[in-house]
Amino acid sequence: MRLKKGQFKFDHSLRAACSHPEQTQIASPSKTGKNMKVLLIQPNAPLLYWKLPKLCRLSGKKALYPPLGLITVAALLPSEWELRLVDLEIERLTSQDWEWADMVMISGMVSHRPNFLALVREAKQRGKIVVAGGPYPSSDPDQTMEAGCDFLIKGEAENTLPLFLAALKEGRRGVILDKGEKPDLSTSPIPRFDLLKLPAYMTLGIQTSRGCPYACEFCNVSSLFGRKSRIKETSQVLAELQTLYDLGWRREIFICDDNFIGNRAQAVDLLQQLIPWMQEHGNPYSFWTQTSVDLGQDLEMIDLMTQANFGMIFIGVETPEEEALAAAHKFQNLSHSLVETVNNITTNGLGVMVSLIIGLDGEKPGTGERIRAFVEETATPLIMLNFLVPLPGTKLWQRLRQEGRLLEDRFDSDLVDKTLSYVPTRPEAEIMEEYFHLWEYLYEPRHFLKRAYQFILRIRPTRAAMAKTQGTPQTPRRPAAKEHLRDQLYGLRTFLALCWRRGVLAPYRWQYWRQFWGVYRQNPSRLVKYLKILAMGEDMFNLRTAMLKIREDYHRPL
């Protein structure tokens, strides 16, 4: 089965990169003066797990988060250059934008591939200097260069951008620039948050470190950012938060580190200084981040995170199959019971989103059923369900290539056609059927609602609720006045929409109301979190519907 281009696309990949030698050639010089006008473009992505368009609309926003990479690059460009940012997730690119620009800089991930290449071609056709960077062009430099890119910047901008500025001044074109070493993050500037249309986003991102000490075979974080967690100074992080505070931001912040606890000492130092900063500023933010499963055995770290107002974490459980975890070199997940790990995090006050993968080497028939059992035992409502995607530059990619199991001509198939791009160790049809069945079962509304309810009853009350019970004073949150009123109105709209869709129209409406009142009676301080999980479920139901349609196409004879 092979779907046509343009049909539903779904991508779980967050990063992709591979090595490539620097290429240079001399071309005629063009405008490189002080009045350079630069158009920074973030492509829009197809429907995927992280977009949550229904939640955004219910919240009165246009997108979940803005392009942190582009605004970091913007902060490194010459101060005399004029900059304009267009995020295609929230706005359209106009002819005036094109006419204004001398140079176009485009960043993207693998999920952006079709739109990314189209933007490169259009920018070149319009006679612009075209600069590309980010995970996708690093993973597939040839296609990006063939599309007309003048400068492809690989690696991290803090130490690679000077190579670009030198090449631009010298008049070179058609070059791939790679510093080949990792920068010290003390040189990383405060991103240009002022370029963003802040009211359009649900959450903003910052980064405190890059890299991860682990080397999971399928993950390219270690090949892209290294196994040493390089850190920003705590003073840098607090300066970024202060910048956002001064801009009026009072909502959620995603700390998008590869592994927030990868350098434990740095994480502890940051949290210990973040806690009083938050209290002094009236607890303006809630945080979420991603960590390794080690967090489940580190109660001190969990306690510090909840004191600093972290509410949710994303962890890579991947699979309950021990042989598959060992084959993938994810040994940190074998140290303790994964069920115990997730339960420790939840009962000590943090919400959990879990990544799971099907199709790993070492799996046995029935893996899908064991994944389902794990999800139900931990009562985890929000699951990022993947099938294995070998990414260029990873050890998995290299191994499968050596074994002759990599279907390189089908690399795009995992993004478009919902077929595997490698030869698995068990039948592909078996893997894909288990994958589709998991989507069908786990995000069936009744099952999802039940897990969300069980999850909320397991998580302890908020710190504010416990302090009130114990008579301990707490620093109240001081939101910006306009934002506070707006968020209250959108929160009310979200609540009413859920009540109408799940509490009136749905055939399981009595389950909705029983659980609502159950949360209100038994864990009332977590009612807002419960409703937010249900709101996120609206997008998961939408993805489930799309997956069931793909399954029909998958089984349809050619």
Strand content: 5-15%
Dominant shape: globular
Q: How can the largest sheet be summarized?
A: 6 strands, parallel
The number of E-state strands comes to 14
Count of runs of 4 or more consecutive helical residues: 22
CATH-defined superfamily of the domain at 37-177: Cobalamin-binding domain
Q: Which structural class do you get from the secondary structure elements?
A: alpha/beta
Rounded mean pLDDT is: 88
For the largest beta sheet, what order do the strands appear in spatially?
2-1-3-4-5-6
Rg for CA atoms: 24 Å
The share of residues in helices is: 40-55%
For the record, the CATH architecture of the domain at 37-177 stands as 3-Layer(aba) Sandwich
CATH class of the domain at 37-177: Alpha Beta
**Which residues sit in consecutive blocks of at least 5 with pLDDT less than 50?**
1-30
The CATH topology of the domain at 37-177 comes to Rossmann fold
Euclidean distance between termini CA atoms: 6 Å
What's the arrangement of secondary structure elements?
Layout: E1 37-42, H1 53-58, H2 68-76, E2 82-87, H3 95-100, E3 103-107, H4 113-125, E4 129-133, H5 135-139, H6 141-146, E5 151-153, H7 157-170, E6 175-177, E7 203-206, E8 209-210, H8 221-225, E9 230-231, H9 234-246, E10 252-255, H10 264-280, E11 286-291, H11 299-307, E12 310-318, H12 322-327, H13 338-347, E13 351-358, H14 367-378, E14 383-387, H15 395-402, H16 413-416, H17 428-442, H18 445-458, H19 463-470, H20 481-505, H21 509-522, H22 527-555
Parallel strand pairs: 1-2, 1-3, 3-4, 4-5, 5-6, 7-10, 10-11, 11-12, 12-13, 13-14
Antiparallel strand pairs: 8-9
Helix pairs in contact: 10-11, 14-17, 17-22, 18-21, 18-22, 20-21
